[in-house]
Amino acid sequence: MILETNSCVGLTPFYTGLRMVGPALTVQTRAGDNLAIHQALEIAQPGDIIVVDGGGDTSRALVGEIMKAIAESRGVAGFVIDGAIRDVDAFRQSDFPCFARGSIHRGPYKDGPGKFGTPVSIGSTLITPGDIAVGDADGVVAFSPLIATELLSAATERLAQEAVIMELISNGNYDGRYAKA
Hints:
By secondary structure, the protein is of the alpha/beta class. The chain folds into two domains: 8-143, Glucose Oxidase, domain 1; 145-181. It has four helices and twelve strands, in the order βββαββαβαββββββα. Strands 1, 2, 3, 4, 5, 6, 7, 8, 11 and 12 form a ten-stranded mixed beta sheet that branches.
């Protein structure tokens, strides 16, 4: 069985390297406008990851240090921004996970329109509200909570296989094939 995860290609981690995992609170906004993100922060639940479809536009930042502080105070688990952020030093000096397309000093508009709680596209990846988003230093993936148990089992099995390979390498016995645990 193939378990599908969606990889959000092209996003850069702008933080100290901690992992994030949680349900996606999706936001769609026009390029450079963060009014809907402010509205999403009002309804965000602790543990939510705010996933923003900003169209990949990097001409204006959608979030910065103040919105990061608001999100942290409400228990949000991280940002995934298909657009730009600003106040990069504030993100990098914190442990609040943030993945974004880029950074710029220019601030956002606050005119709308926008919406939240609908499917969004991050790059070419479709993320629906409530999908589980996972991010680490390698990037962000998202998947339906309906496959979470099976995916965890498959990932655990893969980690065990890789441990066997690493052991073979360290003992000088690796023959170039992937080991089966």
